[in-house]
Every structure is written in C-alpha cells, then in structure tokens.
Amino acid sequence: MAPDSTPLTVVLATDSFLIGDGLAALLADAPDVKIVGRVRHPDDLLAMVESHEPDAVIISLRTPVVTTMATLEAARRLRTDHPGVGIVVISDRGNGFALELLRGGASRIAYLLDDRIPGIDTVLGALRDIRSGQTVLDPSIVDSLVTRRDGIAIDDLTLREIDVLEHISHGLSNRGIAAALFISVKAVEKYVSVIFRKLELIDQPLVDRRVTAALTFMSAQNDGPSMPQRTPIH
Q: What domains sit in the chain, N to C, each tagged with a CATH number?
C-alpha cells in the first residue's frame, strides 16, 4: 500500500457509464486520489487490479442487474487474492450483500448505501479510512446486522477483552492481535473464546463470528453510552 503522502490509486468498477463518469469526475477534484483504471464487467476486475495494483477499488453494486452476483463474487475473490486492496461498495441494497462481503473479514471494507451518501466527501472519507485498514459501514447496516438482545452487551466484557474485540473489528488475525497487544497467541485465542461466549455468538456454518463480534463493537461505538469508560491497561 502506498504511503499516505502519495495519491491513493483507485480502480472504478461500474456497469453504468453514467455512474462511472460521475464518480470519475467528482474524484478528479481530490488531490490525493488518482483513478488508474475502469471496468464495466466483473470478469475484468481482477485483471485490472493485477495490472495496476491500486490501493482501492470502488464497486457500484445495484439491483436488479444480471451481473450483481458476479460482481459480488469478484469482490470476494479480490479480498482473497489481493487482501491489501481496499474495497468501497456503493449499493442500493444493504444487509444481504454486506454480510456476503464481510464473511471473509471486515478490514479495508467500506459499504455505503447510495441514497444515504450526502456527497463525494463521504466516499473520499471511506477511501482514506480503508487505506489505513479501517472498516466503514452505513449505520443502518450495522444496526441490521447486529442482533440486539437484552442482557447481552459489550459492557459485560473486561477492558482487555474490549481491547481484543477492537482489534478484531480492525480485521486483525489472532497472531496480529497478539503482536499488537504484546501477548501470546494462545492468550488471544482464550480472550476470543470468552468474547464469543459472553456475546453468545454460537458457531454456525453461514455466520462468521469474528465479523458479528466486530459489528457488535462498531454498534456499541455508534451508541456511545453503552461503551464502558476506557482506561490504560498496564
């Protein structure tokens, strides 16, 4: 990934010339963003990424379009083959598509609903956030994907468990969390297991517990008062 002082390189993937031209024109005014390629069909996306090695891809995901599922599959393959490339999805649909994309982890992903984007600054902000490894989700998606249940809250976690959960929300693996917190991988595994138990996240074939845990943390951040007061851990 390029340093923050260099332009953020972007590939646009839109099936509509109108949407693609509009995004390209608006992004052209941003001094720290450079469009290096554009594709209309999802089958061309991976080749374009391999050719230009961008920092991020902006994908327009709209329904009903015959290429919608192919586009979603291309995005998932992009996550697997090029994990360092950020993905910004601009869509007219929320929960189902978002969950499909997030199953592989939430790091460097932005999922925005087009009717809730007030201006190009929202897209630019998402690009800059995912460049640093963050996750950006429309609040309505977070609210829908996180099941709020009485008696189950992030407040039940210890400060160390919240530390681990926060790093999960940033997309770090257990090994990455261990390095960041200067603890052993086995200790992280124990914390993760306790977090899953306290949040009542059972192991299900179609549900990624790490993603659900990350969304729970993000939802608690959005709610504000439900987050416990953080103090330094020595």
A: 8-144 (3.40.50.2300), 154-223 (1.10.10.10)
Task: State yes or no: cis peptide before 139, omega within 30 of 0.
Answer: no
b/e map 44-58, b = 16+ CB within 10 Å: ebbebbeeeebbbbb
Give pLDDT tens digits along the chain (234 positions): 444 568 999 999 998 888 889 999 999 999 999 999 999 998 899 999 999 999 999 999 876 666 777 888 899 899 889 999 999 999 887 666 777 777 667 788 899 998 889 999 999 999 999 998 888 888 777 766 655 444 456 667 887 888 898 888 887 889 999 999 999 999 999 999 999 988 888 776 555 788 778 777 776 665 543 332 232 222
Q: Is the pTM of the predicted complex or chain greater than 0.70?
A: no
